[in-house]
Structure formats: C-alpha cells, structure tokens
Amino acid sequence: MTEALTLTVNGGAVAVAVEPMRRLSQVLREDLRLIGTKVGCDAGDCGACTVLLDGQPVCACLTPVGQAVGHAITTVEGLANGTVSKLQRSFHHHGAAQCGICMPGMLLAASALIGRVERPSEDEVQDALGGVLCRCTGYRKIITAVCEAHRFDDEPAEAMGNRIVGRAFPELTASPGSTAASALATTWLRPTRFGLRWCDRRMRRRVSSSAISVRFMPAIPGWFES
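Below the sequence we write its predicted structure tokens.
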C-alpha cells in the first residue's frame, strides 16, 4: 500500500508517495531522479547501488525505503555541494574512474572511510571497498586514489568544469517534431544489463551509458533498432 513518506536526502527533506517495502534504489532513481545511484545485480552482490545511511555504506537495492525514514541518505550527488572534494580530485588525478557503473559506490564507500580515517592504510582501503565490485580494472588506481586523497584539497566546482568524477550530466529530452528530436532520431539505443548503449550512426562513437540519461520518447521511431 502506498504511503506518504518524508526522506532526508543529501541534506534536504523530500516527500514521496511509495510503498514502504519498495527498494530504496528504485525510489532514488525513478522517483527522485537521482540516477547517480547505479543498479547492477539487484541482489546486494556488486555494490553499485551503495549509498550512505547516517554515514554508513548500505546497498540501496536491499534497503526498503521505509527503513530509511528518519535517517540521513547520501547519494553521489550529495558529494557535489559546490566544491570538488579531495577524494574526487584524487580519483581524477590518478585516472581511477572507468566506465562509471561502480564509481558512485566506490566514492561513497571511500568517503565513509575517509570520514573515519584521514589517511587510511592500503589494507583499510581494500576492506572498505571490498563490497563494491569493478569489472574494468585491477583496482590499483582506485586504491591509490583513496590512499592519497589527503594530498589534495577541496576545490570550487567551477575550477574543474566537466572533469569532476561523480558530476551529474543533464538529462536529454526532446519533443516530437523538434530539431532535437530529429537529431536524436539519427542515433540508436540498445538495452544492456546496466542500461542503454548509445551509438551515433554517423560517428560510430559509443558513449558511456552511466554518463547520459535519456528520457524515452515513444514518438521517435526506431530507437531500439540495430
């Protein structure tokens, strides 16, 4: 049964009308449009959906939204408070970001660790990140980035522009018949386990599905044609 719930997300109160047993990951992504929270396995195995609940990492796919009422929820968007954190700067400097699926979970798990230990050891980092899986790397750059985050300072977001690890990208929308819709019609989208793969027919240029969110426009035909 749907209930009116008030959540504290990234420092602000938001109201949602949902079933209390609904997954927190679904509410964050679908109702609140906080799509930085990724969904990989929906079983608590991969850690892609990691968020902080009162500063502690939890799998949002296993957390009923009703259990989050009265607690502070932090998503990767909550790291962007007008500054680029030293952790984000370190990830960028060391090239720790890959496809983007695991990055929100990695950043949040690492943020919780650094909140407790300013200069964690490699063993502490490995233990803290053990619940977030990355299939792109051998974890070496990620671990180094967390261990050396103390070497960096927070910086105004404007200074780094689009180079911020964890930055939200604008959602692409288009109205039927518009110029934008015509441009979007020249691309195709193919469903994958983790979302959509966007390929420009003219450039054959693939764009990370974690970097772009596209709102479905049924009036544009052929989007799922290969």
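Helices lie at 24-31, 86-93, 103-116, 122-129, 140-147, 179-184.
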